[in-house]
């Protein structure tokens, strides 16, 4: 007699399905391979970047990396880095950053990004704009054909003063894309960034069109501090998928 298992003895083992977080970790660990001792490092924010910061902390502890200076892109990453014993500084002391590693919310085929759904867009843009190399780490769900067309938020950091006025002007700017501008909240309260500002999330029914024009138009509005489009900034994009890791360089 035999027991029916449903598997023939020759069948290959079932495929391992990786979770999104495992894919994020794979991309993050790959990026940390670019880190060398003595570097000034931009430390990103979010669940993907968190894995990279953890890994940098681990390599420091093991003595495999030495003489690193981290420039955190948020208070949260600052706290994480402190807990890991990563020496920290800022752009005032280190205006040139060797390498930054950070996640993204959307990546288009030209390596332009949407960032800031975690709310840290301003500091991220400052630190990553000061980098010689900016390595973006994502799982494949972040790949889009056009920025802003995913139906998810395009974040804009604004000053709290008359934010409704600014939100209306932002919405009018992208009226043709069916834009709805919403104040980001936590519970009943406005979400407040590390810089004491608010975030207006733009929800677009169509992609935002010419990115440079959209960027210039947003930044021209008084009341806007920064937006989440990171155009022509990434030098490398590491994408983790079920099929493996792909690395694209500019
Ligand atoms: C925070 C960011 C994050 O990098 C972005 O939101 C991606 O986050 P996650 O890695 O958690 O998916 O821009 O402001």
From TrEMBL:
Pathway: Carbohydrate degradation; pentose phosphate pathway; D-ribose 5-phosphate from D-ribulose 5-phosphate (non-oxidative stage): step 1/1. SUPFAM superfamilies: D-ribose-5-phosphate isomerase (RpiA), lid domain, NagB/RpiA/CoA transferase-like. Its EC number is 5.3.1.6. The keyword rRNA processing does not apply. It catalyses: aldehydo-D-ribose 5-phosphate = D-ribulose 5-phosphate. CDD domains: RPI_A (cd01398). Keywords: Isomerase. This is ribose-5-phosphate isomerase. It comes from Citrus unshiu.
């Amino acid at each position: 007699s035999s027991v029916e298992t449903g598997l023939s003895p020759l069948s290959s083992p079932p495929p391992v399905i990786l979770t999104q977080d495992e894919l994020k970790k794979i991309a993050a660990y790959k990026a940390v391979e670019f880190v060398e001792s003595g570097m000034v490092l931009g430390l990103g924010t979010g669940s993907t970047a968190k894995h990279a910061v953890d890994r940098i902390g681990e390599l420091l502890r093991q003595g495999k990396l030495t003489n690193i200076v981290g420039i955190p892109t948020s208070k949260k990453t600052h706290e994480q880095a402190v807990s890991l014993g990563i020496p920290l500084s800022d752009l005032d002391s280190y205006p040139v950053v060797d390498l930054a590693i950070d996640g993204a919310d959307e990546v288009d085929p030209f390596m332009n990004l949407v960032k800031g759904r975690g709310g840290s867009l301003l500091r991220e843009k400052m630190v990553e704009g000061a980098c010689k190399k900016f390595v973006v780490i994502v799982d494949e769900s972040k790949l889009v054909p056009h920025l802003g067309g995913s139906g998810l938020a395009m974040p804009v950091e604004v000053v709290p003063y008359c934010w409704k006025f600014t939100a209306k002007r932002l919405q009018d700017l992208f009226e043709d894309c069916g834009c709805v501008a919403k104040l980001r909240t936590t519970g009943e309260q406005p979400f407040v960034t590390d810089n004491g500002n608010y975030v207006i999330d733009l929800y677009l029914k169509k992609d935002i069109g010419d990115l440079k024009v959209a960027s210039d138009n947003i930044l021209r509005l008084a009341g806007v501090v920064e937006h989440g489009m990171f155009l022509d900034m990434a030098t490398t994009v590491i994408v983790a998928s079920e099929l493996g890791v792909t690395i694209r360089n500019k």
